[in-house]
Amino acid sequence: MIEDAAKKTIKILDQNGIVLNKNERNHIEVVDFGLNQLEKQGLQIIVYENNDRYCAKELVLFSNQTCPEHSHPNVGEEEGKMETFRCRAGKVWLYLEGESSERIQAKIPKGSEDYYTVFHEIELNPGDQFTIPPDTLHWFQAGEEGAIISEFSSTSRDEFDIFTDPSIQRV
Amino acid sequence: MIEDAAKKTIKILDQNGIVLNKNERNHIEVVDFGLNQLEKQGLQIIVYENNDRYCAKELVLFSNQTCPEHSHPNVGEEEGKMETFRCRAGKVWLYLEGESSERIQAKIPKGSEDYYTVFHEIELNPGDQFTIPPDTLHWFQAGEEGAIISEFSSTSRDEFDIFTDPSIQRV
Ligand SMILES: [Zn+2]
Ligand SMILES: [Zn+2]
């Protein structure tokens, strides 16, 4: 299952002209957040670079796949992770704190309704991007056709992420 | 000339499946470094994001175009800009401080030989990347077919860049 998802990820990137090197192909991060329903709630990640100053990743979402609601809190003196999502292909609906949109386009994963609490919608199509401030709840879902997102950010420290769903284990 | 270069840049990105939004299309940075020989020494830049924590750009180089030698010095207490070059298309030869390579593949721009002083060669093909440490001299040249580089970095502060060629005006 994880291997199938990794292969599918490589294929999607390939079809969109995004080239991975051999090491990256062998280290696709397939994340099901411990929920065991990857196709509904999950995310595929290629980490290009993560150092003590900045981070860059490619995120792949399958059709209607959702990355669950979370935030990147401040840690000690350091501000939480700040991330810019740039849509490269497909469509993404991003939700964050702020005034709720009247009607949202994403479908909240069935059985997890309690763990989606922010509904300010931003739609990202190829060439669109949005920067999520630190310490701000957010979640996102791909459209029918899936999505590729380039994530540019400050240093990634996944172990500090806070998920709304208490059953989620990220690291 | 500048407008032609901007159009050519958009076309190259388009042919490689990299989508720009309207605002980006209207703000391609065409940099000739004040040398007035863009095709030989120059660089085309799309700035996706530059905030006080990180920066992300797309760099486009035409056939055999060279970005002149420079460094990103430390500024006060802050370490100089650190940058990761990821080759997306074409071929790039990157040169930096360190042991000189026996024979380099790039052709040093005629008349500017004095201003190229570091010759440790790194060849980048699609999917390859390299991180340039802060405060380190470097320059780079595209192969015959040109190149697209995704640059992930700490904050960009071009006004502090130091070029080996004293006649260069970056900002
Ligand atoms: Zn996040
Ligand atoms: Zn540089």
Fold and architecture overview:
Two copies of one chain form a homodimer. With 171 residues, chain A is mostly beta strands. Chain A has a single domain, classed as Jelly Rolls. Chain A is 11% helix and 38% strand. Chain A has helices at residues 2-15, 22-25, and strands at 29-31, 43-50, 55-61, 66-71, 83-96, 120-124, 129-132, 138-153, 162-163. The model of chain A has no long low-confidence stretch (mean pLDDT 96). The interface between A and B is medium-sized, with 29 and 29 residues. The site of one zinc ion has 4 residues of chain B, from loops. One zinc ion is lined by residues 70, 72, 83, 138 of chain A. Chains A, B: This is D-lyxose ketol-isomerase. Chains A, B: Belongs to the D-lyxose ketol-isomerase family.
The bound ligands are: zinc ion
In the CATH hierarchy, the architecture of chain A is: Sandwich
- The oligomeric status of these chains comes to homodimer
Name of the CATH homologous superfamily of chain A: Jelly Rolls
Rg of chain A, Å, rounded: 15 Å
Average pLDDT reading of chain A: 96
Biggest chain pair contact, residues each? A-B, 29 and 29 residues
Summed up, the domain count of chain A is 1
Spans of chain A of at least 5 consecutive residues whose pLDDT stays below 50 are none
Number of helices of chain A: 2
Outline of chain A, from the CA principal axes? Answer: globular
Number of strands of chain A: 9
Helix content of chain A: 10-25%
Terminal CA distance of chain A = 19 Å
Global structural class of chain A:
mainly beta
